[in-house]
Amino acid sequence: MIGSIRKHSAWLWWIIAGLTIVSFVVFMGSGPGKNGGGGSASGQGYGTIYGKEVSAEAFSLAQREFIIYYWLHYGEWPQKSATFKREDMSRETYVRLLLTRKAKDLGIHVSDEMVNSAAVELLKSLGRNGQSVPMDQLVTRVLAPEGLTAADLQRFLRDDLTIQQLVQTMGLTGALVTPQEAGQLYDRENQEVSAQAVFFSASNYLAQITVTPAALTDFYQKNMAAYREPEQVQVNYVAFEATNYLAQAKAEWGKTNFEETVEATYRQYGATEFADAKTPEEAKAKIRDILVRNRALADASQQAKEFATTLFAIDPPKPDNLNTLAKQKKFTVRTTAPFNAAFGPEDINVPAAFTKAAFKMSADEPLAGPIGGTDAAYVIALARRLPSSIPALDQIRDRVTQDFKNRSATLLAQSAGTNFQATVTQQLAQGKTFAQIALAAGQTPQFLTPFSLSSQDVPEAGSRAEINQLKQAAFTTAPGKPANFMATADGGFVLFVQAVLPVNLQKKNTELPQFTQQVRRGRSNEVFNRWLQAEANRELRNTPLAELMGGKNRQP
After folding, report:
1. CA 428 → CA 385, 439, 473, distances in Å?
2. Does residue 261 sit in the same domain as residue 356?
3. CA–CA separation, 458 vs 364, rounded Å?
4. In terms of residue numbers, what domain contains 484?
5. Looking at residues 205-215, what average pLDDT do you find?
6. How far apart are CA 526 and CA 518, in angstroms?
7. Rounded to the nearest 5°, which phi and psi values hold at 161?
8. pLDDT at position 265, please?
9. Do 358 and 244 have their domain in common?
10. Is residue 121 located within the same domain as residue 99?
């Protein structure tokens, strides 16, 4: 019932903006091996940092802090994230140990008042409608299920505040930005140009493309790699769906003081979690549904666990064991359509863990589960693996034909754009305007909204050109001149720079103080990052990471 982490929270951004650490360290670039969740690959300890031994306890505590840091940063636990590599855990933990030890050596200390203040801000950031989340609820509902405690959170807050002071200390020289320099940087980022452009899109040239059998075959043969299908798997599965346990869940709740639970939940969370309900009864109805559904899902998961326990006890393990046991238990076995690791099954709605488990299965370990989802729990068996392959042309002829047309039309558009740019250069010298030249060539000039290096969008361009391409063309071209033709995936464009506009002084005076702070913060982080990279390259060689990375970048 705790609200989602709001990434605009001032407290969270203060932490995140200050700690641009961890993933960029050269020495740590590829991460440790399979035992990245622990310490030494050889079991000989956790190494030393700044000449002091890293104890198992210190490593464990730092790892717990990082887990909390990751949750605050990304809104999920690293060990449950589909994108976080578990082997990276050790790397991140050692960097955190390095930072806290350096801060201690420098005598950096934060007061209890600062820690308490940070805790208050955190609880506010996790609540909704201005209400703080009670600490006991954060611990019992969020931390405890992950094996974390209030002491872990308190230590995390203290160490993060300490690291923040370390960032400020080591990056101090980067903050030395004068008002004059900041003003110049502001002008560079915010000075706008006015420009016109002519866009050349492939769609305007498709009608000119003729597809012959020989041309299509040649195109397919030259681009066969683009049509390679990734490895796929197909699995048999038994789904223990929560909907099948709703009646059971209602009966179980009926044996308790269900309405008292509903009332208590409403009093505690009604104003925050169910603020969209029009009446108290509507909110309570939603609470009843959630409680019943959660219990039904728990019952389904328990049934899946019991089924999986029996399944895994059958020796030898075989994929057919799933069908045999399901038939005995009168459960339905279904089969997925083939799917790849990137997208997972398209015919059923399953969690990422389903796909991950499916691709881990092998002839020796052909079974997996239970796998929990939002609507069901699953037990799966490997049906077959489909190796990566390139379909024959006849199998994908329509797809190849469309690709051939699009590519040929794009080349025609780009050729037209290149020729137009040459024409513009010649005729501007004869006194004609860009608009006149474009109209004479049968093209439509687009007058663009003035934009700067800090602009995020140029509306007139739409999807025909990326903003960074427009900036590159505009700010590398003198006023009154056309930029070189800029190719895009769809064709390209020719941009004509009309003028560089004066900076809006009123806007500058208003925004310059905050801009200056951003520049100083960015410079400080750059200086700190360079320092951290050097420290990590030196100090973390004395930890198991050096061994796990095979001595990468090791000094002779």
Report:
1. 63, 14, 18
2. yes
3. 56
4. 192-225+395-500
5. 95
6. 12
7. -65, -40
8. 83
9. yes
10. yes
Does residue 334 lie within any of the structural domains?
yes
d(CA 542, CA 328): 57
pLDDT at 76: 86
Q: Return the structure tokens found at 401.
A: 């034909």
Give the residue among 465, 474, 518 at the shortest CA–CA distance from 495: 474
* Cα 49–Cα 537–Cα 90 angle in degrees, nearest 5: 60
Q: In the structure, what pLDDT confidence band is assigned to residue 86 with cuts at 50, 70 and 90?
A: low
Task: Assess contact for 243 and 296: CB atoms under 8 A.
Answer: yes
Round to whole Å and give the CA distance between 24 and 334.
Answer: 45
Mapping DSSP to helix (H, G, I), strand (E, B) and coil, where does residue 58 land? helix
At 429, list the tokens. Answer: 């010298």
Place of tokens 């700067």: 452
CA 494 – CA 201 distance, rounded (Å): 12
Question: Whole-angstrom Cα distance, residue 182 to residue 161?
Answer: 28
Q: What is the structure's pLDDT at 152?
A: 93
Number of domains in the chain: 3
Contacts of the segment 470-474: beta carbons below 8 A, 24+ positions apart? 470/197, 470/495, 474/193, 474/195
Q: pLDDT confidence of 194, banded at 50, 70, 90?
A: very high
Q: In whole angstroms, what is the distance from residue 452 CA to residue 189 CA?
A: 6
Tokens coding 542: 């004395």
pLDDT digits (tens, 9 = 90+) for 432-447: 999 999 999 999 999 9
